[in-house]
Amino acid sequence: MRRGKGARAKLREHFLNNIGRVMDSEELRAVAGGITEWARRVRELRSEEGYQIQTHNDRDDLKPGQYILEDPVPQPAFERSLSKETRAWVLDRNGFTCQMCGAVAGELHPYDSTRKTRLHIGHIVDKSQGGTDAPANLRAICSVCNEGASNLTLERPSNLKLLAQVRRAKSDTQLELLQWLIRKFPQHAKEFLDDERP
Ligand SMILES: [Zn+2]
After folding, report:
1. Under 8 Å between Cβ of 38 and 7
2. Per the confidence metrics, is the pTM higher than 0.70?
């Protein structure tokens, strides 16, 4: 048991010292002292401590046996207790978009272009205000907003202002918006196009 705990601590330290670097299983096994259950220790860092260590199951650009930790801040305990299904449901309902600033998962953050947007699950009505962990009270929040770093941007634009800004935007921005909307509302897009057809 003691040896196992030592391996987990070594792996934790190694991940935290190598934020953003892809590592392979051989390297991690060596860090863990060559023990065979190193992969289980990595899983414990994810499931018990909340470190968002990613694998090819999370990211298309990783090969099997590759691992990366991009965010040194572990997920809060409540988020770890959410089922995969609940997380997926909330992220899907929110279009994989931060509900405070509009940043999209995996894209460069609009207010901090040094970071790729990572989404967390947060409460709509805070627990301190009586909010619950029910899916209806959950929403996607990016790590920048989660850390309170972009509260300058939190006001939702009014419809009128937003439409005026879209109409004034450059064509390539409008086209990017169109593509994003088609991806977000594929069925609606199809129906609109079908209706237009003679
Ligand atoms: Zn955000």
Report:
1. yes
2. no
